[in-house]
Amino acid sequence: MTPEEVGRRVVALLAPVEVTASVSGGQGYARATVDVPPASWRDAVRAARDDAELACDFFDWLSAVDELADGFDVVVHLWSTRGRHGLLLRTRVPREPATVASVVDLYPGAGWHERETYEMFGISFDGHGELKPLLLPPEFEGHPLRKEFVLASRVAKPWPGAKEPGESEAGGGRRPIRPPGVPAPGEWGTTPTPAGAAGAGEGPRGGTPARPVRERPARPAPGDRPARPAAGERAARPAPGAQPTSEEGTA
Q1: Of the chain's two ends, which shows fewer C-beta atoms within 10 Å, N or C?
Q2: Going by C-beta distance under 8 Å and a sequence separation of 6 or more, which residues neighbour residue 179?
Q3: Residue 93, CB half-sphere, CA atoms under 13 Å: how many?
């Protein structure tokens, strides 16, 4: 089946639910992309698996895209090993509450992907049953793949070159603005936080300790330096180990 045929078949199976079918980019690797409402998410996945024409018997991957104020796009890619065609199903959920039905009972392989999406984006999958930490430690706070999540490494060390499309590669660009509550680059490491850092967190923070400052001896003032001997005086001095002449011996 062509991507257009796959999209039309999904639309017919989900009627009268309003869905939108399109074709992704990629030329020879283009896929049928079908946007469905969250309430029809499981029905769409089940139809793609059970329909004799679609026969999407292989679960490829599931993830999400942060669309900021518009919510999150949850995307799943399915594949038919018999028909050699793929299908992208997509649904959009609001940021609060970010919840969609789980498809683990339809594709057991989705368990790992739903756990990762829950951990990285904060999207809950109703019916999963084991949404526990997968890649991050249990004490980790926040969801790293949300666009409002502050990347401390980016704040501590600016990215080289252009930071956004359209900025000059030779530097310049916008003046870096530190997000509220994030320490300045000089405050990272084991050096205690300077006074008046507005609660950035006092005490050591790990990393490479700061090098101790070495004290160098003060250089003498120009007037206090010993005068260098003149050229004639340097020539008159005997070389080290030289025997004195007869005149110097009798003097």
Answers
A1: C
A2: 150, 155
A3: 22
pLDDT tens for 203-220 read 344 444 445 556 677 776
CB atoms near residue 190 (< 10 Å): 12
What does pTM read for this prediction?
Answer: 0.61
Q: Which amino acid is at 223?
A: G
Pair of tokens at residue 15: 């009627």
Helix (H) / strand (E) containing 20: strand 20-23
CB atoms within 10 A of CB 110: 21
Give, in order, the Cα–Cα distances in Å from 219 to each of 24, 91, 162, 224: 71, 72, 44, 10
Beta strands in 42-172 (DSSP E): 58-66, 72-80, 85-93, 99-101, 124-126
Q: At which residue do the structure tokens 């139809």 appear?
A: 47
H/E/C letters for each residue in 101-117?
ECCCCCCCCHHHHHHHH
- Among candidates 93, 88, 84, which has minimal Cα distance to 48? 88
For residue 147, how many C-alpha atoms fall within 13 Å in the half-sphere facing its CB? 10
